[in-house]
Design goal:
The protein has 212 residues and is α+β, with helices and mostly antiparallel strands. It has helices at 53-74, 80-96, 138-148, 155-172, 195-209, and strands at 6-12, 15-21, 24-26, 29-32, 38-42, 45-51, 103-111, 114-120, 126-129, 131-135, 180-186, 189-192. The protein has five helices and twelve strands. A hairpin with a 5-residue loop joins strand 8 (114-120) and strand 9 (126-129).
């Protein structure tokens, strides 16, 4: 069973920043160094996945298809909270059958009400916050987020906070590592950053904090 990760989401002034590592582990075995943990649902809503990879991938595909069918018919974009509620119902229904999906999600996106991130647990519990972390490295990441997050961050500062939190988890959690994926969601859509762009931000952190 593939599991182990750190994923991060935080709200900034104009959108949300989503970051995740690339390692999937099975016990102490590194099963993949190229795991994809940030998944678009619409052009302005993304999921991060942690927990059992197979469960998470099946759910992401189901939610993406259901959202497309539902909101294509009514001809409007979904609210982030509506996608969170839909996913919550599926998780809770399976939890009650004693065959739960063993996953945690961060759902991040932008809608007519602004930027939002939600955390969903395997039982269907939903929590909205300004910053979140999931996975085995989340205790380390949350400590950094608690210390450095503030209201009204601009995009670049929010990226730096997310990357510093994720890099802290990579350094302390053996199930987190093998690179970073980074996405920013704004009213213009979702942008996935290239490795050289991410490395540019990391180099800036090294120079600012002496963390290289």
């Amino acid at each position: 069973m593939l599991k182990g990760t750190t994923t991060i989401g935080l709200v900034f002034r104009d959108g949300v920043v989503i970051a995740a590592d690339k390692r999937a582990s099975a016990g102490t075995f590194v099963a993949s160094k190229r795991a994809v943990k940030i998944h678009p649902i619409t052009d302005k809503i993304v999921f991060t996945i942690s927990g059992l990879v197979a469960d998470a991938q099946v759910l992401v595909k189901w939610v993406r298809t259901s959202v497309y069918r539902t909101f294509l018919q009514i001809e409007r974009d979904p609210l982030v909270s509506e996608v969170a509620s839909l996913t919550s119902l599926v998780l809770h229904s399976n939890f009650r059958t004693l065959l739960p999906f063993l996953v945690h999600f961060i759902i991040g996106g932008v809608d007519v009400k602004g930027p939002h991130i939600f955390f969903l647990d395997h039982a269907g519990g939903v929590n909205e916050d300004k910053f979140l972390a999931t996975g085995s490295g989340s205790p380390v990441a949350m400590g950094i987020l608690e210390n450095e997050y503030r209201e009204g961050l601009d995009r670049d500062d929010a990226i730096r906070v997310a990357l510093r939190a994720l890099r802290g988890a990579i350094r302390r959690d053996t199930a987190t590592g093998d690179g970073i994926d980074l996405a920013v969601v704004t009213d213009e859509g979702t942008r996935f950053y290239k490795p050289d762009e991410i490395n540019g931000f990391l180099k800036g952190l090294d120079e600012a904090f002496g963390e290289g």
